[in-house]
Amino acid sequence: MLYQALTAVFCILSAFSALAAAQTASNASLLDPSLYKNVNVSRGLVYHYYYSPPSQVGKPTLLLLHGFPSTSYDWRHQIAFFQDEGYGLVVPDMLGYGGTAKPVDPEFYKSSLISRDMVDLLDAENVNEAIVIGHDWGAKIVGRLANYFPERFSAFAFLSVGYFAPAVLERSFAELNNITQQVFGYENFGYWGFFSTPGADNIIESHLDSFFNITFSADKLLSITDFAPLGALQAWLEANRSTAAGSYVTPEERALQIDAMRDEGMTAALCWYEILTSTIERDDNQGIPQENLTIKKPVFFGAALEDYVAVAASQIASILQVSENTTTIQQYDSGHWVMLEAKDQVNSDLLSWIENL
Hints:
Elements: H1 2-28, E1 36-40, E2 46-52, E3 61-65, H2 76-84, E4 88-92, H3 111-124, E5 130-135, H4 137-148, E6 153-159, H5 173-184, H6 191-195, H7 200-206, H8 208-215, H9 222-227, H10 232-238, H11 251-264, H12 271-277, H13 280-284, E7 299-304, H14 312-322, E8 327-332, H15 338-341, H16 343-355
Parallel strand pairs: 3-4, 3-5, 5-6, 6-7, 7-8
Antiparallel strand pairs: 1-2, 2-4
């Protein structure tokens, strides 16, 4: 009887422990809504952003910029980590996402305008100088902040996607696909065409599970066959195909992100691609001061070795060509979502880099 009683007690304690652990994991995946703010930037658009001031004297503020098709939630692991380390954080939902304005005219998404928006957010929090870290199209904006506002940043960090040189868009969309077909054996910018096609938003919204799972796929090689090439992603979605999402996204996180996509729609987010396949971004780049086409402050690049769209070798080359200062390059056995899949190593490497600036 004593043995049975002890066994029962042990089982109850184990159940409570598992429940507590699950609750802790659940809470950790959510960002504190009380730390979000709204501000009207100088061109009249509302930005929704997470803000936490430095909690330790001398610690700088980090500006974290996400990409497609996400929100500030992409940075959940970095927010928790760097906030505990005492750093300040400004983490916006970028234009077209989350609680931020969602204009559907691609002209609003020019990099020069979004760069100005980011500086307006820093001004709203009286941050004179920050360290900026970006992933995906957020990394493109990191590069443009170095071009347009180098005096506002002490260092620049790029994850997965390197420096998006203005010269890239001197070539047409068709030329870019021909070049990548010759170099890589597939058009790794081909999906831009689908994202820029009228009706793409409706196709994605009608197949959100299929879209999410290939975008965050556990099988990285699907990028080569079913995501990047011309026509491949549209065919995948219209067939409502599916695959397993990576384990770096929990079922709870997946549900939250799919619900956000469903609630917000995809129309505005796809404008980030329309500016690339048209002449909007190319023409906008003409305003970059020639003296700022190289980066003269410290640079960090986190390469994702299993990213077959932003291919690591080409992205590393883009960084080495533009950086005139100390350049730190770290490589991860990860797909595109490096700050999720390799979160602990990325956080550790970024912290070491920042502490040694």
